[in-house]
Amino acid sequence: MIEALKLKLGEEVAKLSYELNVTLPSEIRRAVEMGDLRENSEYKAALERQQLVQARLGQLTMRLSKLATIDIAQIPTDRVGLGSKIIVEDTETKERETYHLVFGDSVDFEDGHVTMSSPIGRALLNKAVGEVVLLKLPARTRKLVVIDLITIHVATPVDLD
Questions:
Q1: DSSP conformation letters of 46-111
Q2: In the 8-state DSSP scheme, what is residue 8?
Q3: CATH fold of the domain at 73-150
Q4: C-alpha to C-alpha distance for 27 and 160, rounded to whole angstroms
Q5: Spatial separation of the C-alpha atoms in residues 9 and 59, rounded to whole Å
Q6: Domain with CATH 3.10.50.30 in the chain
Q7: pLDDT of 21-55, one tens digit each?
Q8: Whether the Cβ atoms of residue 98 and residue 150 lie closer than 8 Å to each other
Q9: 2-69 has which fold?
């Protein structure tokens, strides 16, 4: 999971680097050749895009450095941690819900993905199968029981879907 995310982010970094170092400079050069830069919308658009790409590259670089510091050995094998798939049951309604605990600044959230810093993520963190989770919401407090847990250590790509 973490390696796949690193690969995906690395591909985006490569694409944006190419745009920043090859595509945008040629667009800026072409716009400069058109003359008066004060009223040149192509020039302004290229400069704005350049700033956006630089900002995104900075974000991706920080994110990749954070991912590099994650030690999989420090993630518990029998409790909820980063990358875990958790199935919980509401003690009142008996409804079951599935959550995937993902990295805090993930950009591709899918249904059921929660971050470790979210209220549900903090409530689930370090819980084991059979433990009761108290989820404090503004309107009420929910009691959830951890029914099943698949940690990042045993997860297969099918488990993460």
A1: HHHHHHHHHHHHHHHHHHHHHHHT--GGGS-SSS--TT-EEEEEETTT--EEEEEEE-TT-S---T
A2: H
A3: Chitinase A; domain 3 (3.10.50)
A4: 41
A5: 10
A6: 73-150
A7: 999 999 989 888 887 777 788 888 999 999 999 99
A8: no
A9: Helix Hairpins (1.10.287)
CA atoms within 13 A on the CB side of 144: 28
Q: Report d(CA 113, CA 75) in Å as an integer.
A: 18
Q: What dihedral angle (degrees, nearest 10) is formed by the CA atoms of 128, 104, 9, 44?
A: 170
Q: Which two tokens stand for residue 144?
A: 């959830």
**Tokens linked to 56:** 């995104």
What pLDDT, in 10s, does the model give residues 131-156? Answer: 999 999 888 999 999 999 998 887 66
